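ok here's Pyruvate dehydrogenase E1 component alpha subunit, seq below lol
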Amino acid sequence: MSVSAQLGKDKLLEAYRMMRTIREFEERLHVEFATGEIPGFVHLYAGEEASAVGTMLHLNDADYVATTHRGHGHCIAKGVDVRGMMAEIYGRKTGVCHGKGGSMHIADLSKGMLGANGIVGAGGPLVCGAALAAKQKKTGGVGVCFFGDGASNQGVIFESMNLASVWRLPVIFVAENNGYAEATSSTYSVATDNIADRASGFGMPGVIVDGFDFFAVHEALGEAIERARGGGGPTLVEVKFSRYFGHFEGDAQTYRAPGEVQKLRDEKDCLKRFEERVVRAEMATSDDLRGIDAKVKTLIDAAVSEAKAAPMPTAEDLLTDVYVSYP
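and the structure came out like this:
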């Protein structure tokens, strides 16, 4: 029996709740950012939810994840507190990083979230380090490095994949190919037809998966993570899909064809495809899912209200959290 076929109703509803939470969080940020109340840059993950959730359902708090500048979805799926994330994005003291990180630097080590990162491809070495520690300590933990099609051309990603193979580290490299990097099509910027084809150069399996299909992602990542935990070494998984919003909030997306995003929403949306499949299989009902939708909306409304009312960091907070105090 396949990994995904073993999912029961409770796990399926949890997967839907996580994907819906990411979608509602990002759609709301799209609206709120336009008010001018949110500082810094914001990069939204809407449309890509199946990748984060399909991966994280196989992980626990002892497993480490390094994400990208587009990291909200990964953080939510890894279990980082949604209210704390919203406060962080608003730059408030109650944020998960006390308002010092903002959208692009959310981290929560208690959940194994090493953090979002504004440096393209920087998660590779971080995850190799975490995976090496897990291997040496024999914790059974794995490291997952998410990176985009733009980062797939960065030397540090190649170096990290090579190191992971040489040392047989429990690492999964997840290339989230949303087709555009920043504003350039990956069909132009990536020399190979598939990022996953590069895996053979580093002696690891390369897998391509439909990123609009939660079950396909869940199956592929389940196999890769199980292999890593069992000492089989790293895997490169390429998840192909597309984002709904621009590279950053304010991006006019003039590089995309007219109607392209709406067509994706209408025909390939991962939440719609998930609902169609589980309802048809009688694993859940539409009423079950609508109930989750209502609870998620209430959560996001509360998160925004609390964030706006929360205090800002003070001048006295400036030099806190700079150094780590070791016992």
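fwiw The two ends are 47 Å apart (CA to CA). kinda neat tbh
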